[in-house]
Design a protein that fits this description.
The protein is mostly beta strands. Helices cover about 5% and strands about 40% of the residues.
Length: about 375
């Protein structure tokens, strides 16, 4: 009986150790609510060129700025009422650019809060937006089935050729291959568009009913996307080979927005699960209980998200660099007499060290 008691104690202590280890491994999560208008629905979020995070407030028709320490400033002047700012991205011109999902417009806001809206040439409600490899901004028109390009001076070109009817371009990102990659919500496909407007659609390997949402590019140049309808995270190579990951994702959790972390992992929001998921490059998934709408990597290397009237930060544990020690080499060469360096000298049975060289009558020990 005594041995059973000791065994139970050992198992209990082991369980506590395992629980403590698991808790220690969980990232620190901080949420900021002060300064954010009630019921404003913070949605998209992006790192700004000024070292702050910028986010959209869909219900308030506002753009918010939050410092890494949590101080919030909101901007509404120049934004049309009921325009529903949605996605936001840092542009090549040092400004932030955002989509207006209830308005046929793309907005620009300077880091000082001056807003300009562009409507000429845009014929549909704008959904996703990203910075292109060509110095322009690229956006999707989910209802009107088009991909748009807008220069930093506001000149718009729309592309529809090559897009399947009802494809519903949703979210968009610039790939490391110099092309634009986007999800097709209504077509169960991933689209690729060159900067000249040539479209290729990839469907093979994507589960039916995926209802594709967010998309991001990883450090290897692969594209990762969220399948809102099937609770799957997918990966597609630039040659179109798809791999899907479902193990570890709560069923019916509806993955939505997605980004690549500074730790090299992929992070995504879950609309129906009040959680943020993390997927390693090997496909191992972990879920953390935090309600989130949008997600991005901040200028501080941490993960930042928008949630229920909050903006939050997840402290990322970056891998410790492995430092390799250079092997010590031992020289077998005989050392000559060098001024300022000790030498070992012998005279008969005597052995002494001298600075520089051996005195007269002494020989250098070899």
């Amino acid at each position: 009986m005594a041995s059973r008691g000791r065994l139970a104690m050992v198992l209990s202590l082991s369980s506590l150790l395992i629980m403590a280890t698991a808790q220690a491994a969980s990232p620190k999560i901080t949420s900021y609510a002060a300064g954010i208008t009630a019921d404003s629905a913070p949605t998209g979020i992006s790192a700004g060129p000024d070292g702050n995070l910028w986010f959209t407030e869909s219900n308030a028709g506002a753009i918010g700025k939050i410092t890494p320490t949590g101080t919030v400033t909101e901007y509404t002047n120049g934004i049309s009422e009921a325009s529903s700012p949605t996605d936001i991205v840092a542009g090549p011109d040092g400004n932030l650019w955002f989509s207006e999902s209830s308005n046929e417009a793309v907005g620009k806001i300077t880091v000082d809060g001056v807003v300009t809206e562009y409507t000429n040439g845009i014929n549909g409600k704008v959904s996703g937006i990203t910075r292109g490899p060509d110095g322009n901004l690229w956006f999707t028109e989910i209802v009107d089935n088009a991909i748009g390009k807008i220069s930093t001076s506001g000149v718009v070109i729309e592309y529809t050729v090559g897009l399947s009817d009802g494809s519903g371009p949703n979210k968009i990102v610039a790939g490391k291959d110099g092309n634009l990659w986007f999800t097709e919500n209504g077509n169960n496909a991933i689209g690729k568009m060159t900067t000249d407007g040539v479209v290729t659609e990839f469907r093979t390997g994507i589960t039916d009913g995926a209802s594709l949402a967010g998309i991001t590019v990883d450090i290897d140049g692969n594209l990762w996307f969220a399948e809102n309808g099937t609770s799957i995270i997918g990966k597609i190579t630039t040659s179109g080979v798809v791999t899907e990951y479902a193990k570890g994702i709560t069923p019916n959790s509806a993955p939505s927005e997605i980004t690549t972390g500074a730790d090299g992992n992929i992070w995504f929001t879950e609309d129906n699960n009040s959680a943020i998921g993390q997927i390693s490059r090997a496909g191992v998934i972990t879920e953390y209980p935090v309600s989130a709408n949008g997600v991005t990597t901040g200028p501080d290397g941490n993960l930042w998200f928008t949630g229920d009237n909050v903006v939050g930060q997840i402290l990322i544990q970056l891998p410790t660099p492995v430092q390799t020690k250079k092997p010590t080499t031992v020289s077998t060469k005989k050392t000559a007499n060098v001024p300022g360096k000790k030498v070992v000298c012998i005279k008969g049975k005597q052995i002494k060290s001298y600075l520089g060289k051996c005195p007269t009558g002494w020989k250098k020990k070899t």
